[in-house]
Amino acid sequence: MKRIYIFTGKGGVGKSSTAAAHALKSAGEGKRTLLVSTDMAHNLGDIFEKELGKEAETVLPNLDVCEIDPEYVMEHDFPNIMEYLGKLLTDEGDCSVQEIGMIPGMEELFSLLKISEIYKRESYERIIVDCAPTGETLSLLKFPELLSWYMEKIFPIGKVAVRVLAPVSKAAFQVELPNKSAMNEIEKMFLKLVELEELLKNREITSVRIVTTPEKMVVEETKRNYMYLNLYNFNVDGLYINRILPADMGNDFFTGWLAIQKEYITCLKECFDSLPVYEIPWYDEELKGERAIRRIVEDVLDGKDVFTGKHNTERECFRKIGQGYELEVFLPYAEKDSIDLYQAATDIVIKTGNFKRNIPLPNILRSYEVAGARFDAGKLCIRFERGRGKDE
Ligand SMILES: Nc1ncnc2c1ncn2[C@@H]1O[C@H](COP(=O)(O)OP(=O)(O)O)[C@@H](O)[C@H]1O
Ligand SMILES: [Mg+2]
Question: What domain range is 149 assigned to?
Fold first, then answer.
């Protein structure tokens, strides 16, 4: 089965290095592998000491590398959409692709659509994705879900769905409808988004791996990141703690730092005890070139089955209790007071911080109402009872 591994984490923690190490290991195992970067600050070229073009290039036997350029994807794969969006954004329709790229989340979205295409069309057994830093990745992860949700529920597919693509200003809502060819592109895009979401949420196919370092700010962001990934029901199945100082440096200067790292490593292991946790040493050099990256393979990955996705339980489940039902959603590290919950016509809506998720209710629960909720040990349990005046 072809698989996708997404490496995410804060900027500079070692996502590219860790992703590249997995790519080397995978190719070494004889699996046809693609290492692909969606981070606009690409550095796979530096790591493999090679100037990379716009399409995938073979750098080693079984290993291709590609730095996705979202502008290139927009222009080549969705030219009509680009033209139409250009019209939406300016009266004259002379808006450039660069300006369209300014719509938040747009670039990441096109990068992911490209990966979905590659997954379908190409014969790579493993696709390893080196992502943009956490903040951007999160907007990218929730974007397909939000977009397809709006398109399905609020707008009839096709006709006016495109409005959602440019939620730039209210004024944009009064514009002409797209011409026929853009319309087809939009419908194609909608279908691709649905496919993309299915691909990324499929636990048999996509694994999300979080890279972190043992320091306060990064650990905090890692926990938040994990919570949001769970909220959106992604399969997080690995944590990598990078830049761990060697214990025997014999240098007083680092004694304090060793203690600090130790504290955060313990904390991370406790927080992520349901996941495989890998520890990567802090090396005495920058990780440039295949030889340097191989150090991670030899020290950390060799002899471990890092490519079999670990199956974590589904993050949400409905179960029958007594006369009613209960929906359980796994939200590790969410703050109880920051969780907001309400019931829309056919969905249950959970908000925490800036994140919002709509969980469609099974048909049987449409006549039920939320009777109560509790948040305990990282789990939100929502209780449903049959609505008043709605008999058996
Ligand atoms: N374990 C490590 N030891 C030494 N240098 C490292 C280590 N991990 C990453 N680096 C260096 O830190 C910088 C950032 O790493 P990188 O993998 O590019 O992070 P990211 O992709 O998360 O921004 C690079 O120069 C890399 O060579
Ligand atoms: Mg990087």
Answer: 3-301
